[in-house]
Amino acid sequence: MNQCGMLSGLLRYRCTAEIFQRCGGGWMKPSSRALSSSTGLKVPVRLSSSSSYMKEMYLAWQGDHNSVHESWDTYFRNIHGSRPSGEASERRPSTLLQGRALSHSLDTTQKVVEDHLAVHSLIRAYQIRGHHVAQLDPLGILEADLDSFVPSDLITTIDKLGFYGLNESDLDRSFQLPSTTFIGGQESMLPLREIIHRLEISYCGHVGVEFMFINNVEQCQWIRQKFESPGVMQFTKAEKRTLLARLIRSTRFEDFLARKWSSEKRFGLEGCEVLIPALKTIIDKSSAGGIDSVIMGMPHRGRLNVLANVIRKDLNQIFCQFDPNLEAADEGSGDVKYHLGMYHERINRETDKNITLSLMANPSHLEAVDPVVQGKTKAEQFYRGDRAGKKVMSILMHGDAAFAGQGVVYETFHLSELPSYTTHGTIHVVVNNQIGFTTDPRVARSSPYPTDVARVVNAPIFHVNADDPEAVMYVCLVAAEWRSVFNKDVVIDLVCYRRFGHNEMDEPIFTQPLMYKQIRQQEHVLKKYSRKLIAEGAVTLQEFEEEIAKYDKICEEAYTSSKDEKILHIRHWLDSPWPEFFTSTGEPQSMSCPPTGLDEEVLQHIGRTASSVPLQDFKVHPGLSRILRSRADLVTSRQLDWALGEYMAFGSLLKDGVHVRLSGQDVERGTFSHRHHVLHHQEVDKQTCVPMNHLWPNQAPYTVCNSSLSEYGVLGFELGFAMANPNALILWEAQFGDFHNTAQCIIDQFISSGQAKWVRNNGIVLLLPHGMEGMGPEHSSARPERFLQMSNDDPDHIPLNQQNLTCFISDGQLHDSNWIMVNCTTPANYCHVLRRQILLPFRKPLIIFTPKSLLRHPEARSSFDDLTEGTTFRRLIADDGLANRCPGDVKRIIFCTGKVFYDLTKERKLHHMENDVIIIRLEQISPFPFDLVRVELDKYPNAELVWCQEEHKNMGYYDYVRPRFLAVVANRKPIWYVGRDPAAAPATGNKSTHINELKRFMETAFNLSTFHGRNI
């Protein structure tokens, strides 16, 4: 047996992997104990060198052939033609000859082993760091990793062979290939020269692969096979022709827009025209694998091209958007054309299968759409029973600067494998322009690549030169297959350039002169690729020109027909249509909401389930047992606390087939330990019970899930989830209401204005714990003033029925509002407003300022009578106390909302002023209940009007309610303010200060001489 053969046997027994341990891309010798264990030797010796170790092993073998591994037994036998073990001692050579032969053989063997291990290290170095020297930049002026340094362990020149103890003479020696590479194909040995050549083709060409950080052997091997196997990146003539046709459409679309609207912003795709065939390749491959719904999100760059050539939006509908005289047919402000979304069902021509494509509308907050797309994808998978993501998938497109710089990207990645949030793999496509607006990437990010954030979830990253269309297509095929096989995220980094500035009116040479001098000389990718295919004979020049003329004609015809469009129908651009929910005109079926009350038997049944453990032999915590007994006592007395009121709302909707999903930080138990919707077995790990899913035999599912510690990402996710189905109650709860401030982008860009911009109805519910209880500035205020400032109801206009000016249409007012805000003070009203959210014939976001101390307040209780059939949500709760007997004698009406009501009633009782002061609660703050306020004011004609709030004067509700109260009274009387003085922080962190503030404005509220002569 020759030395390579013997070494092959040795390597098959993992000698390389286990005798030598990786250290910074190289190898080091382990301890003798590890060495002995890994090789199976029975002689544990401590070594100072491999030579002395082999001598001792040889001596051990002489005594007993079975004391060493069989590969070494074979080797020692071949050194001197040894017979089987029993004959070894009979035919030993002389000691002197034996020593010389052994010394020479061991030196030779040691060299062979070290050289083979060096080659294995070399292969691994290319797998780990080959992407650093890949030819990724089409311009050839920047390094994609922002560093021109060449790793010392990559053989880019012959002199670097010395790093591994090799020299030029070794280039033609053959070496055994390890099992962790596929560069040999069917060959197990290759010359070193060929090994290096094949590694350069696999890892240092126009594709750079980052994957060796993945801690899964199977996944790493899968990627190695896809990129190392000889000849993998090859396409048929038909495939190349299809690729060329798609590249023509992508390029000529941008050229057409530039010719027709040269002075218009369109955020074209020039410089990354390959994005269109890339997306179509991903969709084709996914469709062939069974996907029939793809939900996409992207920034503005290239959106019009994607709409035209991927989604297949009618070109005349796109072109008419450029007409400045187009009149809006739908209500709302609308949005610029490169922010709009689209939903389209069509046949995939490559697979002849139906496929639905949805591109989500997105604001200029480039990555804000990421979690929204994920939420909508999850919802579609959920409602279709697609538990493994084999039917519905998501594709997210990104810009390089935004992908590296915006935190929501990280938050979205961290949702990717959470059980209640995973979409079973997203394909991320980064359009890497190698520049921000005017910012060089070298001062815009700290990581080598913009895609490094994806490493946190072990997502493979495929960098590819966007001027090599075939390399791009191959990477897209591998990415689509990866997502199908492993159900994990994957990133494609299209390293390209931006031919023009940030927009078509921008001059980029001001800040990037060298880059844009090169770009102006850069040949278009379509020209380069068409020339390549013509040279190969895959297409003729005539066929190429005919394909261009064919698409140009399509564009011209669409342009001509677009001039007939006089009205802009934003509804044609819906990304989430609800065809069964609306009429054919897109309007709700009616404007009225039925009563939200419940049957007594339903209330009792839900109450019993909420206060019990549905599973047998399920051991709960003793403290929780007491809570459940307390609930049972409430049910027996026909009473509700806050948690039980929520249970009634959810349970009754589940009975009616409405899916309920509650998500947020610690929502399963509830931040304030009041909810307990998930019970945990105290002796069996991971065994839980959700009583809400044991209410009815054929009920809808209830999903309650603790989220990651994210507000921006999770709220965006739940917003997307709510877009998929109007007949579902989707709720997000902040741990404290204050924490929604880190999700403000979602609130501003999607929730408050989504319908106005994109005709996007959404019924998401935000539960924001709110109340001033001395818990400091970050655990007190949900900032109601921010929500109210963005409400679109007119403070000077009281909406009345035109046929009967005294009849106020409350549901119509809801329909015209952009969202609804409530601050409930009773569990029954909380239950009603949640049920109303589904029973309304339209969908609006609902913001609920929920309590903290009222969760267990003895007076914050409701009777079952407040929930029985015929009852409904009370927008305003009037005072039914003693003062009602003589309304003319009432001196003061205090209007308030939320928890402060209980402080006011306590103070009023303390001062024995029940006959003098009326306290009225606004439960629905926006849209403002003008009609009910008018009724109350007319009832007490002699009373002065006071607004009391616990928030500071420059916060809370005062600035919102004051002009509306004045509109009701037609400015005939003032409205006085009672509350805390203006402040910068929303609350004090000192308990004593908090109590003094409360005491001060409580005294003011009931001092009837306080406001005389002073109109606030």
Automatic annotation (TrEMBL):
EC number(s) recorded for this UniProt protein: 1.2.4.2
| CDD domains membership | TPP_E1_OGDC_like
Transketolase-like pyrimidine-binding domain location, by residue? Answer: 640-857
InterPro entries attached to this UniProt entry: 2-oxogl_dehyd_N, 2oxoglutarate_DH_E1, DH_E1, KGD_C_sf, ODO-1/KGD_C, THDP-binding, Transketolase-like_Pyr-bd
Q: Which Pfam families match?
A: 2-oxogl_dehyd_N (PF16078), E1_dh (PF00676), OxoGdeHyase_C (PF16870), Transket_pyr (PF02779)
Q: Which Gene3D superfamilies match?
A: 3.40.50.12470, 3.40.50.970, Multifunctional 2-oxoglutarate metabolism enzyme, C-terminal domain, TPP helical domain
What's the name of the protein?
A: 2-oxoglutarate dehydrogenase complex component E1
> Which organism is this entry from?
Gouania willdenowi
Q: What is the lineage of its organism?
A: Eukaryota, Metazoa, Chordata, Craniata, Vertebrata
